[in-house]
Amino acid sequence: MPDLSVGTYCIPAGGVDTQSPHTEDEIYVVTSGRARIVTPDGEAEVGPGAVIFVPTGEEHRFVDITEDLTLLVVFGPAYGSRATSHA
């Protein structure tokens, strides 16, 4: 099982983030665009250079996307590697 996976996630300006909580920890790096991220602990403005950590299972959503948002996303362990395990 790979320890990490990496990809990009893009949401156009005015778009809707429909993702659900993941079974892996995530790190987002905003490469372009502007929005807010909302989590159970609060919300924050994000823009180029922002680094965001989201722990396994945490609800999170990008909202108020005012400029096309492009994110580099790193999953640990690899995305989907825990999806089939049932505790």
TrEMBL record:
Domain Cupin type-2: 9-75
Domain of life: Bacteria
Entry keyword annotation includes Nucleotide-binding: no
Stored InterPro entries: Cupin_2, RmlC-like_jellyroll, RmlC_Cupin_sf
UniProt keyword annotations, A-Z: Isomerase
MF GO annotations: isomerase activity
Pfam families: Cupin_2 (PF07883)
Name used for this protein in its record: Mannose-6-phosphate isomerase-like protein (Cupin superfamily)
